[in-house]
From TrEMBL:
GO terms for cellular component: GINS complex. This is GINS subunit domain A. It comes from Arabidopsis suecica (Swedish thale-cress). It holds the Pfam family F-box. Transmembrane segments: none annotated. GO terms for biological process: mitotic DNA replication initiation. It comes from the Eukaryota. Residues 7-47 form the F-box domain.
Length: 269
């Protein structure tokens, strides 16, 4: 693996070009450096399928083209810039949008095979089902569904956060608890979700920093199992910062003379 990481981006992209698009995308979990490389491969292939909702179809290519033109709404924010396109290919963002949310259909949706045991591939008006967030969001924008609060933000979670937020196992509820909550919050009628996210984060972030400086390795390992993906990243960043600070405090001179200054002093003598 280290030998492969030593290769240039161009060579890695060339290697990925021999893989199917799906397998090429899966390599992004190998290393942070690989996260967006698959998107640069010359043979990237996107399937252009139609999705008909309430009698109005839109193809993948049309959707992306509208984003490039800086269209309104989600397309403009997420796909209308280089930063947005990088977000589109981010593996964490993809995993977040795969989280399921409960929805209520206001219109009949054709061409969405939700229940494999159903006789038809459509969702009738009034149906209550769970859909991946990315699909539920698109249907919500077309006023085809109402998105309800996912179970990971239910009353039980709120009561546990109020009782002892620092030690609630949020990872088991949703690995991306905060980012998923931020995506859901504007789409649901519950206006207290933002307060829940803010309260939980403030308390748990303070506790995480305390653990970095005081917890033993075994205790820290158990504590990390409760943390969400976002909290784990912050914990690891704080741990690296503390390690670097201790190394600076205990090792070597505080200031180092530039080598060029040493050479000039010798020349003058």
């Amino acid at each position: 693996m280290d030998r492969i990481n030593g290769l240039s981006d161009e060579i890695i992209c060339h290697i990925l070009s021999f893989l199917p698009t799906k397998e090429s995308a899966l390599t992004s979990v190998l290393s942070k450096r690989w996260r967006n490389l698959f998107a640069l491969t010359p043979n990237l292939h996107l399937v252009d399928d139609d999705l008909e909702v309430g009698g109005c179809g839109q193809t993948l290519i049309d959707f992306v083209d509208r984003g490039k033109e800086g269209g309104k709404g989600r397309e403009e924010g997420k796909y209308g810039s280089l930063e947005g396109m990088a977000k589109y290919f981010d593996i964490d963002d993809i995993l977040i949008e795969e989280e399921f949310v409960p929805v209520l259909f206001h219109k009949t949706a054709n061409g969405v095979t939700i229940d494999p045991s159903a006789e038809t591939n459509c969702a009738e008006q009034g149906s209550k089902v769970e859909l991946p967030f990315w699909l539920a969001h698109e249907l919500h924008l077309r006023q085809a569904v109402t998105i309800n609060l996912p179970p990971c933000f239910d009353q039980k979670t709120r009561l546990e956060v109020q009782a002892d937020a620092a030690y609630v196992d949020l990872r088991s509820r949703c690995p991306y608890f905060y980012e998923f909550g931020c995506k859901i919050e504007p789409l649901v009628t519950d206006r207290t979700l933002g307060i829940l996210l803010s309260t939980a984060f403030k308390i748990r972030y303070k506790e995480a920093l305390t653990k970095v400086y005081t917890a033993a390795h075994i205790t820290a390992s158990k504590y990390l199992s409760f943390l969400t993906k976002e909290e784990t990243n912050l914990y690891e960043a704080a741990h690296l910062s503390m390690t670097a600070f201790k190394k600076w405090r205990t090792g070597g001179p505080r200031f180092q003379r530039a080598s060029i200054l040493g050479r000039k002093r010798k020349d003058s003598n």
